[in-house]
Amino acid sequence: MGARLGSTAQNALEVARFGGFDTDEDASPCEVVTEQRVYRLRHYFPDAAGGPVMLLVPPLMITAEVYDISSRVSAVKVLHDLGVDPWVVDFGAPEREPGGLERNISDHVLAVSDAVDRIRKATGRDVHLAGYSQGGMFVYQAAAYRRSDGIESIVTFGSPADTSRGLPFGLPGWLASEGVERIPDRVLGGFAVPGWVTRLGFQVLSPVKSVRSRVDFILQLHDRERLAQRERQRRFLEREGWVSWPGPALAEFLRQFIQHNRMLTGGFVIGDRLVTLADITCPVLTFVGEVDEIAPPPMVRGIRRAAPRAQVYEASLRAGHFGLVVGGLAIAQTWPAVASWALWREGEDELPEIVAPVAGDEEAETADLPGGPAGYGLQLAAGIGTSAARSALRTAARVARGSRQLTGEAAQNLPRLARLERIQSDTRMSMGLLLDEQARRRPGEVFFLYQGRGHTHDAARRRIDAVVRGLIHIGVRHGDAVGVLMGTRPTALALVAALSRLGAVAVLLRPDGDPAAEARLSGITRVIADPEHAAEAAKLDGVQGYLLGGAGRGDRGTLMDMERIDPARVELPGWYRPNPGRAGDLAFVVFRGDGEHLRASRITNRRWALSAFGTASSAALSPSDTVYSITPLQHPSALLMSLGGAVAGGARLALAGGSAAVPGGEPSPHRDIDPEAFWDEARRYGVTVASYTWTLLRDLVNAPPNPAERHHAIRLFIGSGMPRGLWRRVEERFAPARVLEFYASTEGEAVLVNLSGKKPGSLGRPLPGSAEVRLARYDLENGRLAEGPDGFAVRCEPGEIGMLLARVRPSAAGSASRVVRGVFRPEDAWTITGDLFRRDADGDYWLVGREAELIGTAEGIVPPGPIRDALGDLPYVDTVAVYGIPAGDTELAAAAVSLRDAEETVKAIDLTEALLRVEPELRPALVRVVDEVPVTAGRRLWTAPLREEGVPAAGDGLTYYRDRSGAYRPLTETARRRLLRGAAARETRSRASHRR
User: Fold this and answer.
1) For a Cys staple, 112 with which of 88, 142, 315, 688, CB 3.0–4.6 Å?
2) Is the Cβ–Cβ distance between 513 and 483 less than 8 Å?
3) Model pTM greater than 0.70?
């Protein structure tokens, strides 16, 4: 006993004086192949190199020695002994490296990518890329950045890919995301985290094991030989293995991967490129610690959702975070399995027994742990389980999480709605103002994304300021109308924002429309074009043209080049004040229709803000969201919803480029968008909210399954005009994403939104802050409001078709269109929207048709909505168009349907039963099957070609008529003649009746 006490005292004194025992263990032999600004590249056992090449990447807060702690605990030695050629990235200790504490995430990822290139050049082999903890995250990011080029496989150990699944030790994800949101960028990135703080944090997250380790050490102080076997490992984990975490890297890590979870969703920025793990195509082997409190299994298993194109394999071990790579279990199981994996990939070994492929969404078997990781830790200490307590905690957490989400959304949306309510005609409000607010709040955050590049708020602000000075130089002043003739590009966005900041009016000409007619209609005297549309701008009569964008590229043409204006030499005039626009001021002019139906829509700052805040509130947009705009900026959906919602909600805006973008403009036959390009950009940008118009998503729904759509991050499709049948198909295919359908009146400030999504086809209820709306009975024959005995309009009962009216604010009554006064009481003022609705018993509104779409049959006026919905509910119908066929002075109501599958056939009985839900007087006289229903470039149904074709020839088996009993039958020549004669005869009787 005395000898034992003496040994204990002697060993304790040595530990106190020197921090531990001197074990005389040497590190594995290595050479530093290259030394770069951010890293050194070590090659272990260089004199005996051969076999598969593996590059090991450490996490930020731990030194590269984690892979070679001692001769007994050395990953590189095990790999070498089993035939693998090990290399290691060494980031050093940032606190001791020049500029080390200024490094960001991109620096480390690009360093890993550079190391891969150097190893490939030196060995002639592709590289197995492996990383532990955050080092594994670097591995994922580098492989995605390279799109797997030169990567034979990926191996990670306890590396999170989905932080939405909670935080270490069961803490809820919102605790970090909401906490990070409240810390300013300058504070978050302004200091480094010392190594001792990180070490303490890891010990706190695994307190039982930390205490147990210390107790074991003290109890065995008498046995120097036994302690020496683990001494290097103990000293590494307790002191020597920890280094500082650079402030910029910490800020970027917390913002991009904790707060916004972009490892899962994609859209994080490396260098100046947007990256998504969906670009990983090489095999992935992920090691999961079943009792890992720091990277719990659900976080690690997120890789199968984040990288849908990769074949994922899993090895699940009964280990904690450190135990996966350090210690006896790692030496006995982890590293031999890694070596076997690399050799198997070379065709030289079998797949390790502990490794299993993950098929689809299933998870590899995990041992049941009493009470989960926390319970397992307690069991180690005291031998008791806590499964009941954990179950109760999980239940409480689920309730709290749901309440927290609702509370968070309310806290986010209430200030937006309150601000919207406070906007009066003289309130300062504009796009430029909101952009400036966002730039001040988060200057270093990405504002918009285009063609694989991210542009920060600060960079966008500088570009906008430069364009403002250019506009002042050419004579543009507050209130001037300036034409914008550009495709979708960053310069177009900067120009529109600059005009708003100046208080001028952006007249958005459609490149695929008729710019000359639109210029005449709007009366502009200046137009600014990009190089692709400069020639068109030069042809506009009486309009001075200017060129902006594409500096230094190609022929600049004859227009004055605004890129040659030096902003620094433009003196700001005394009258200039940034963002002078008031809510009642005209801000934008957009166009719809073509030819004789060409119309200009004038949008005030208030109208824009109404859509912007309404979209942000309804979609609960936040800085974690990326809003994807497929339509060009001159399309109202892009200007009002995508751009407006992103700016008001602080979200990122992704502008579709190339074949994913949909042009706007004149009608055309059906033009596909490329689903491959859509999903590629959706993944790369980290899209969570995608916009649509009309039937735009039809191509996406009908396309074959795309690997990138598996586990996509899109939570909402937002837009207007989606047919009910397509709506259901979108939600079925892309679940859990749902459709958020809006209605915004062309005239007035009425905005409806279907927030619940429970009634596909319904346009929901009025958005708080928008104009009050009412349905009034409407005389369709004479085009006027129906009046009651007292001379006032009559409000519609539930289920009754009526005209939607929007209340007009007194200050706007003079400038509003189609204003009627004294409608429901003396002196009130309402705008006739021109849109017919029904309101159901729950208070939800259903669009029946627009005035321009009404069909004047001999029996009366037929709106298209009920027919479109009824036929669209048939499971084999793809698209439905309802239109009128001229028949004398009246029309025949007709419907054209295209089918989802060309092999399908329409059954007459199906048409009859589907249309029984429509009032008899509103049913179509004809239903025909067509290969494609024409749509405009903006995907709106285009009925003019169908109308011009008239009544189809009989006998083709593709056209059906309604007989006297109301049933639908294949059209015969006799029925066709009777149909045309009957229309003329009914019109004659109708005229005679009117004369009497």
Assistant:
1) 142
2) no
3) yes
